[in-house]
Specification:
This protein is an all-alpha fold. The chain has helices spanning 2-6, 12-16, 25-28, 38-51, 59-70, 74-80, 89-103, 122-136, 138-184. The longest helix has 47 residues, at 138-184. The chain is globular and about 75 Å long. The two termini are 30 Å apart.
């Protein structure tokens, strides 16, 4: 499984030789951020799932920060944030808002989709996005945190379980091959 995933990850030396990352060598080039094992993969998926619900283009930055803090696989954490995209973000925010309304009962209001970037500058769009979130209030904020936590936990458990199933199958396959070789000899 590691070999399959590693095909798509950048080489550690290529990252080390990148002049743009030189100022961050002590942080971003830590070997554990580029190591791929069961723990780092599960943690990276959890970090990516959690950071995927961060509004706007800050998802990748959140994934990088989480990967650096928890020392999990950086590329996989960043890649996992792509579960949110223009097709999935509105349904995910609707679910988050519903979770928030369920946890914080009160007078319900109708969910308004997030604003499009449009022709505004980035800073103007961020202000519009903050106003939009403030208008939805506590149910959306709490719902986003709860949904992100639930998705992160589910991603962590599923990766650990999938990796374990893969290992058990590989062990059994090797045992059968070894038994076949011994019986043939």
């Amino acid at each position: 499984m590691r070999r399959e995933i590693r095909k798509y990850l950048p080489d550690h030396e290529a990252i080390r030789n990148n002049r743009w990352l030189a100022p961050f060598e002590n942080t971003l080039l830590h070997p554990r951020l580029w190591d791929l094992n069961r723990r780092s993969a599960a943690g990276a998926v959890a970090a990516g799932m959690f950071c995927g619900l961060i509004p706007g283009p800050l998802q990748m930055l959140g994934a990088v920060i989480c990967a650096a803090v928890f020392r999990v696989n950086l590329p996989l954490a960043m890649l996992t944030t792509f579960y949110t995209n223009p097709f999935t973000i509105v349904p995910l925010y609707v679910v988050a808002y519903a979770i928030g309304q369920w946890v914080i009962p009160g007078p319900g209001q109708r969910f308004v989709p997030p604003p499009d970037w449009g022709d505004e500058s980035f800073t103007a769009w961020i202000r519009i996005l903050i106003d939009w979130m403030a208008g939805l209030g506590a149910p959306l904020a709490l719902g986003l945190v709860l949904l992100a936590s639930g998705l992160a936990l589910a991603g962590y458990v599923l990766v650990k379980l999938a990796w374990r199933i893969y290992l058990v199958r590989a062990w059994r396959h090797r045992r059968r091959e070894r038994a076949a070789r011994e019986s043939a000899a």
